[in-house]
């Protein structure tokens, strides 16, 4: 399969294969992204996050359909956790989006978080870049808003939609630390249920208390399963994008996300090199033994390994 | 390069439940695969498009409705038309023995009838996907 030609001509199979290669750390994938990097930046990147089962996929499905009516092309990157035991995953977000599958102007890709050794946001962000190059207007990233890694992924979005549900009362307090702060728009989904108004009020109160940013996020009640309130939600998303563009906030957020991205790639590359080296030389196991017997301490051990990697890199370049 | 095998699990047709498909999905996950689970009632067109966008190695289809003689060949044909004929297509569900040769003829790689231990399906996928 000629990935480069396929990417140029907009062949979905080539785009899909490129995402796989990137996810599997195939250097050729990064070469192709590098060659096309100047083409990125056209898509609006929207993070969709919130507790498990809140309706993130349903909201994404309905927003996508609305954007399609407006003639926009849409990509969706749906991230679900990988099982730490087997390394496998069940990626189930497509269940809510089945009738988008055959829409020529939509591309949906599911990803597993694939283990703790870094690279989570690297892969999701890589997929977003590829879809951006492919020429989509909007790209959604769906992640469950539970852990720091998901927060890292979602930070790469231009606008973050927090999907909440009625009756989260105490949960809002719990989620608040670190995660509520990243919402630019709040959707109270399942507003067909009791307590939607109260939840909306609670979120509003919390947002009033939390006045730190320049933008006051709005709270929109929606019933995604009935396609109710989705137009208002999109309006608020567009409103935030507009604010970002006119206030200069966009650039400062981009600077931040690029910083995060570079650091993440750097860290991931180091971990990857270390793993490769250790598969050959068992350097990690050997070092662990030396720390275990207190021949050295973990700080020295980490420094030593870093030096080994550095010398190896220097050695490679000549 | 170590990479997880990706499998699309689908339950097309208008009938019933997806219990069987879910059991297979879990077994494949526990075997370290990434399972794209699409739930009930997709059309062959949706399955084909999802398989392409997800770049799966294998499409595993569960059918209970008796429409297997129509649905399986249709999916194989659509995948081939989309230049994705290298994707392994396997099936499970209530399928009469007599129909199996015809389905294999049509390009389905294997049919696993109810009661097949999931380990057999897992091994079959590992051994028969075209990309290693
Ligand atoms: N009552 C009600 N149910 C809804 C609404 N929106 C979605 N649901 C249902 O909520 C369940 C979960 O919806 P999803 O869209 O899969 O939620 P999710 O947040 O993507 O779930 P995960 O990705 O598993 O975390 C489904 O059964 C939906 O049909 C709504 O507005 N009202
Ligand atoms: Mg979901």
Q: Could you explain how this protein is built, in words?
A:
The complex is a heterodimer of chains A (318) and B (132). Chain A has 3 domains: 1-39, no CATH class; 41-247, 3-Layer(aba) Sandwich (Rossmann fold), CATH 3.40.50.300; 257-317, no CATH class. Chain A is built from 12 helices and 8 strands. Chain A has helices spanning 3-9, 12-23, 27-36, 56-69, 120-134, 148-154, 169-179, 196-209, 230-247, 249-281, 283-292, 298-317, and strands spanning 44-49, 74-80, 89-91, 106-112, 138-142, 159-164, 185-188, 218-221. Chain A is globular and about 60 Å long. Chain A starts with a helix and ends with a helix. Helix content of chain B is 40%, strand content 21%. In chain B, strands 2-1-3-4-5 form a 5-stranded parallel beta sheet, sandwiched between helices. In chain B, α2 packs across α3. Chain B is globular, with a radius of gyration of 13 Å. The model of chain B has no long low-confidence stretch (mean pLDDT 91). Classes of the chains: A alpha/beta (318), B alpha/beta (132). The interface between A and B is medium-sized, with 32 and 32 residues. β3 (89-91) of chain A pairs parallel with β2 (34-40) of chain B, so a sheet runs across the interface. Bound molecules: guanosine-5'-triphosphate and magnesium ion.
Second-tier CATH architecture of chain B:
3-Layer(aba) Sandwich
Shape of chain B: globular
Strand order across the largest sheet of chain A: 4-2-5-1-6-7-8
Largest interface: A-B, 32 and 32 residues
Strand content of chain A: 5-15%
What topology, given as strand order, has the largest sheet of chain B?
2-1-3-4-5
Task: Tell me the helix content of chain B.
Answer: 40-55%
Taken from the alpha-carbon principal axes, the silhouette of chain A is globular
Number-wise, the strands of chain B total 5
CATH structural class of chain B: Alpha Beta
CATH homologous superfamily designation of chain B: Cobalamin-binding domain
Q: What's the number of domains of chain A?
A: 3
In the CATH hierarchy, what is the class of the largest domain in chain A?
Answer: Alpha Beta
Please summarize the sheet with the most strands of chain B.
Answer: 5 strands, parallel
